[in-house]
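CO-FOLDING WORKSHEET

Operator: S.A.
Ligand of interest: calcium ion
Run index: 109
Mode: holo prediction, single chain
Checklist:
[x] sequence pasted
[x] SMILES validated
[ ] output reviewed
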Amino acid sequence: MDAGGFTTADRPFFVDQDERALRLREALDFEASSHHRLTLELEDSAGAKVQATFNITVLNVNEPPAVTDDQSYDVDENEGAPVVLGSVAATDPDGATDVAGLTFAIDAS
Ligand SMILES: [Ca+2]
Ligand SMILES: [Ca+2]
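OUTPUT RECEIVED:
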């Protein structure tokens, strides 16, 4: 480590020495882990060190649902309404609650 700086080995975080800031290497995923705990080490130019623990809380963002594009269904002619053509394969990154609340509509445009 550089003398007089601070570091952390905890991914996905890193320390920007110029800004003296804790930064992310990559985006965090609330659904994977909503809390991170990491240790920063601070060292002065004479080699004296201290450590401190930081807690990072990841706030949930409502992400849009995902639906398999270009799904195909076959139906015999003269089938009476409302025949089921097939189920729509859809998911939501936010979990089962959001999947249960999905509403479908045919785009009239
Ligand atoms: Ca989310
Ligand atoms: Ca969602």
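REVIEW:
Residues 30-31, 60-63, 93-94 surround calcium ion (ligand 1) (CB under 6 Å).
Residues 6-57 form one domain.
[x] output reviewed
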